[in-house]
């Protein structure tokens, strides 16, 4: 469901529509008649009246909040849970905080910020962040369909552009038609401009091939072009032509793309088999590959096994068979799933995503022939 290219493009389109709404291109409004009816019923008093008043207030703010809430719900539908929960807690807390605080300190109402251009500024900044989010879902579709349209450099370049545009917009260098002129640049604007400019410079380092830490998990893989060309060959021949070269397959960093060839080498060399069930759009898989697999202790242990990487999130062969094998033999379709087998295909152990290096090292030690 989460890796379906059509769904990812649909979600990307929703993000773009939300962004255009925040830019002021159009308004998302509920029918006026519905709001008027709820408003009249909320004037009745009592618990029901208070609840209806709160519902009316939430629906009235629908125009401004639907892009934020919609984004959180879309992320939840894609398998995320931490950030959507955090986002909805923040959303509900912001709505409740004014009433709670003003009930405690009624005199503070006179010092509340007045409505003005700053509200439009927040909406436009959120709109640019929505565009940046849409790029991730377009990239997912690109990876699954192997279009070759969204390489890592273009992805990072668009994020850099969004960050720089936000910084320039906050400083008042440009404005949209519905914005009021920025007469002066205060401390908050300078702080936020520095923050987004710093993000731009940080992302720029990624264009030179330097690692971007946690962000790398959300970007197209560094070997984007070779991955697309290799997988197209695998899809037609069901074998990686590089695997016929003994000098390459004996390299400790070499990964097979075909299970039968990997098993054959494991039997010939009497080494255990390390199977990596992974996905083109799997963020946890990318994090493990770029952060965990590169650690010296991990690399050393994995180098003592025959490694095979089996992608499962494309709806064609051999990926469909890879997924079927994972489901039937190991009763799981979770990505990533790491399996250690003997040369005779006897099961040793499995492991899923983890940030604990010691835990992963203990798992890999089970695949070292003593």
Q: Would you kindly provide a written description of the structure presented here, covering whatever features stand out?
A:
This protein has 370 residues and is α+β, with helices and mostly antiparallel strands. It is built from 15 helices and 4 strands. It has a 4-stranded mixed beta sheet with strand order 2-1-3-4, sandwiched between helices. The radius of gyration is 26 Å and the shape is elongated.
Number of strand elements: 4
* Unreliable spans: 233-249
Strand arrangement across the biggest beta sheet: 2-1-3-4
Distance between the termini: 42 Å
Kindly estimate the percentage of residues that lie in beta strands according to DSSP.
Answer: 5-15%
Supply the helix-strand structural class: alpha+beta
Mean pLDDT: 81
Helix content: 55-70%
Biggest sheet: strands, sense, closure? Answer: 4 strands, mixed
Give me the strand/helix succession: HHHHHHHHHHHEHHEHEEH
General form: elongated
Rounded radius of gyration (Å): 26 Å
Our count of helices gives 15
């Amino acid at each position: 469901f989460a890796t379906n290219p059509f769904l990812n493009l649909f979600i990307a389109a929703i993000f773009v529509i939300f962004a255009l709404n925040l830019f002021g291109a159009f308004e998302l409004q509920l029918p006026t008649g519905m709001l008027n009816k709820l408003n009249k019923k909320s004037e009745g008093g009592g618990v029901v009246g208070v609840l209806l008043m709160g519902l009316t207030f939430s629906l009235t703010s629908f125009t401004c909040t639907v892009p934020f809430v919609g984004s959180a719900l879309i992320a939840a539908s894609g398998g995320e849970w931490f950030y959507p929960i955090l986002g909805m807690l923040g959303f509900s807390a912001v709505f409740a905080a004014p009433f709670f605080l003003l009930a405690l300190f009624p005199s503070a109402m006179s010092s509340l910020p007045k409505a003005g251009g700053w509200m439009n500024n927040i909406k436009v900044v959120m709109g640019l962040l929505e565009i940046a989010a849409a790029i991730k879902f377009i990239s997912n579709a690109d990876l699954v369909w192997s279009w070759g349209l969204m390489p890592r450099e273009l992805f990072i370049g668009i994020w850099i552009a969004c960050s720089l545009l936000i910084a320039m917009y906050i400083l008042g260098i440009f404005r949209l038609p519905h914005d009021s002129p920025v007469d002066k640049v205060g401390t908050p604007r300078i702080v936020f401009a520095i923050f987004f400019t710093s993000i731009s410079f940080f992302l720029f380092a990624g264009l030179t091939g330097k690692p971007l830490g946690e962000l790398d998990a959300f970007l197209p893989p560094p070997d984007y072009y070779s991955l697309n060309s290799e997988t197209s060959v695998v899809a037609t021949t069901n074998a990686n032509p590089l695997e016929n070269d003994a000098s390459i397959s004996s390299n400790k960093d070499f990964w097979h793309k075909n299970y039968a060839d990997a098993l054959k080498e494991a039997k010939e060399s009497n080494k255990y088999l390390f199977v990596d069930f992974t996905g083109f759009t799997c963020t946890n898989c990318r994090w493990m590959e770029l952060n965990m697999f590169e650690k010296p202790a991990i690399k050393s242990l994995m180098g003592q096994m025959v490694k095979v990487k089996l992608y499962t999130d494309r709806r064609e062969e051999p990926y469909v068979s890879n997924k079927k094998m994972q489901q039937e033999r190991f009763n799981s379709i979770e990505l990533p799933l790491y399996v250690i087998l003997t040369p005779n295909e006897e099961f040793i152990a499995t492991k899923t995503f983890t940030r604990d290096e010691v835990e992963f090292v203990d798992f890999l030690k089970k695949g070292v022939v003593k």
